[in-house]
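Changelog note: in this version the structure field was regenerated for every chain. One regenerated record is shown below for reference.
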Amino acid sequence: MRNKKHIVSLSFFTLLIVIGASLNINGINLSEIAGNYNPLYNSAEATQRTNLNKTLTSSKQSRALSIVAEGKASYYADQFHGRRTANGETFNMHKLTAAHPSLPFGTWVKVTNLHNGKDVVVRINDRGPYVKGRIIDLSIDAAKEIGIMRSGTVRVKLEALKSNPSA
């Protein structure tokens, strides 16, 4: 009986390897998905990391965009103005910056308010948000640009820009 369990387990893992190899041959790379998956995270962060793998390129726009995630955005209160961010910069609430849990520092992200269609381009320079269910924290000026000052939070779409928006 014990050997049957081992054979079933071995067969299952062999099947997974064969499926993975065939997907990779067909142009679907599973290493990106596996690299972002951590079974210890059972939260919105796990969903967000999975959404990092969804990409969309647009030939109509001058900058190529990748869909990063959709979720709830909030903004930093002014009490953080002048404090150090995770990348070592001094936080300035009047600059168009944001905090994201996993995007590399310096990444330019287009944040679109899904309720009114307004968008803003921000640079990731900090880590956060640390509130469950939120995917990005914006500076106050960035929050004003997309109109979330009254509500405090809003559903947004994040798109990572492939190049510096000022270039």
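Spot check on this record: Residues 136 and 144 are 15 Å apart (CA to CA). Strands lie at 65-75, 97-99, 108-113, 119-126, 134-138, 154-161.
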